[in-house]
Amino acid sequence: MISNRCSIILLLFCLYSVAICKTTWTNQTVERPVLVGAFNIQNLGVSKMSNKTVMNIVKKIILRYDLVLIQEIVTTQEELMENLVKDINKLHRRKDSKYMMQISERVGRGNAKEQYAYIYRNDKFKFLAGHTFPDRKDDFMRPPYIAHFATPTLRDLDSMIFIGIHTQPKNAANETSAMAKVYDYAVETFKVKDAMMMGDMNAGCANVRISDWDTIDVWRRKEFTWLITHDFDTTLSVNCCPYDRIIIAGDNVADAVIWKSVGPFKYRDLFGISTDMLQLKLKPTWNLACA
To answer: Which residues constitute the signal peptide according to the record (predicted)?
Structure first.
């Protein structure tokens, strides 16, 4: 039976990217926009990572982007994620850059533990610091993973914060609201206001009632802008449910985003994915195509 939820959701946005040639300070070149996303690969464990067909497609998808938040990593074998990055670099085949990974501790309650990971190109992003949000009030099923990255190729944006989250569906309204608290903590910790919060927030349909939105801080506060709004559908069902979200804060990030770039990445057709493949939990992603 095929799940109605998009097991693999890729929410992407584009930033303008400017690089300085290494040969001279006076010679500048404009690169393509930087691509960033959040990728929920449902139940990413030994079974799925042993499926070469599925993982070959996952690697191709990751290679399209410069930084990806991976969610729902359930394997306890650390070498599997390390091997994934090694395989991506074999396909990347560039001497001037490589993909690297920052992975969180295991988070969750009881046996329902997962990890977050940022996989990124080291010529586009430089990891500065990061850790799991210290959730002293137990607001989250899986506390968000905060990472501060330098952005050496982005114009007017020296660094920014990424906050990745995968909420518990039945507590989605409360957890989504608490993301405002996480942002405040990150700003105080890293002294940077430019940030992006992204991931499978389960923030739609029955999980979040219309009346809930008036109490959701990250929705009410004016400094936050929702790139993935209520108009989007991140499911395969007949219902239009915007479970997966991207939220930004900070003037420099807002100036850098290509606002009309949000749209679905139809990789099913691109990679020739059959109906049978969908049963392996490989579902459509979201893409912000660069102008």
So the answer is: 1-21
User: Checking DSSP bridges between strand 107-109 and strand 99-103, what pairing results, if any?
Assistant: unpaired
Q: Can you tell me whether residue 128 is helix, strand or coil?
A: strand
Question: pLDDT for 18-50, tens place per residue?
Answer: 332 333 333 445 567 888 888 888 889 999 999
What value does the CA radius of gyration of the chain take, rounded to a whole number of Å?
Answer: 18
CB 37 within 8 A of CB 8: no
Give the whole-angstrom CA distance, residue 280 versus residue 111: 23
Sequence letter at residue 132: T
For 155-172, the three-class secondary structure string (H helix, E strand, C coil) is CCCCEEEEEEEECCHHHH
Torsion of CA 143, 40, 105, 248, to 10 degrees: -50
For 125-147, letters b (16+ CB in 10 Å) and e give: beeeebebbebeeebbbbbbbbb
Q: Which two tokens stand for residue 234?
A: 């991140």
Contact call for residues 281 and 5 (beta carbons, < 8 A): no
Tens digit of each residue's pLDDT (9 = 90 or more) over 80-121: 999 999 999 999 988 899 999 999 999 999 888 999 999 999
Q: What amino acid positions are annotated as catalytic residues?
A: 114, 166
